[in-house]
Amino acid sequence: MAEAKGVRGVLALELAGGASPGRPALAPGQGGALAAHVGRDLARLAEGVTGLDLVLAAAHFDPAEALRPGWPLHQRLLELHARAPGRGEGPRVLAFGADAQGEVPLPFQAEPALAGGGLRVLPFLLAGPADAVAAVGAALEEKLLALGMAQADTALLAQDGFDARIEHARYLTVHDLAAMMAMQYTNQGLAPLWNLIEAALLAPGAVEWLDAGPEPLLALADGEARMALFDPAGWCAHYGHAVEDHDGRLQRAYAHFLARQRQFAAVLEAHGIPLLYVHSNGEQDARTLLL
Question: What pLDDT, on the 0 to 100 scale, is given for residue 291?
Fold first, then answer.
């Protein structure tokens, strides 16, 4: 049978008290033990899991690192799975983290700039025949969000291995994780940007706009985000502000706009979405410059 790309998911660790884990990745023995527990937990949730290979990244990441166009963390797991020994000898449980000397290979080194968040994720992949992957994937999409709490001994193993204080450990598909991030971004006032991120993840060939003043003007095309960079006159022209500024309100609004652009740029960078700035002085419609 043809092989599918696999079911993409994460083991999400909610940390207690904002304390970062003491270790970035697990040693081979610890990683293998955690992967075995993950496989057991998932098998309790969906029939057919035991017939698939489980590939776990025994290293933790910020959720944004797992939600990037092309799914690079899961793609790396897929590549390692293809090269792992034992192919054709029955279902395998594979874990990749630190090496025997405690060093973390580059593909599983989390970005230091994104450390410190209260939620860390361990990507996993279930791989095998296409029909089996499809059936298990559908079952997990239906069940994980509501029923995907990890067993207590799995959470304890992760807590001890990563030297972390974990309040909750649960399994999510990448779509569940995306839905959770969308809610968080809404709570943080970033909902207008999520449509672009979601399009980059799920419809990389799509064209998506953020064109809702007073927000920054953005377009996503060909996998790249393009942001209009206005000077003060161009900003006034595009957003319909009067040029006169007798009490400084316009200047403060423009400063807020620039801060919002920087915030959006940081979020796009965290999700690995390339950003191009396109200068506009207001002499022509900035929308025509972005595409």
Answer: 80
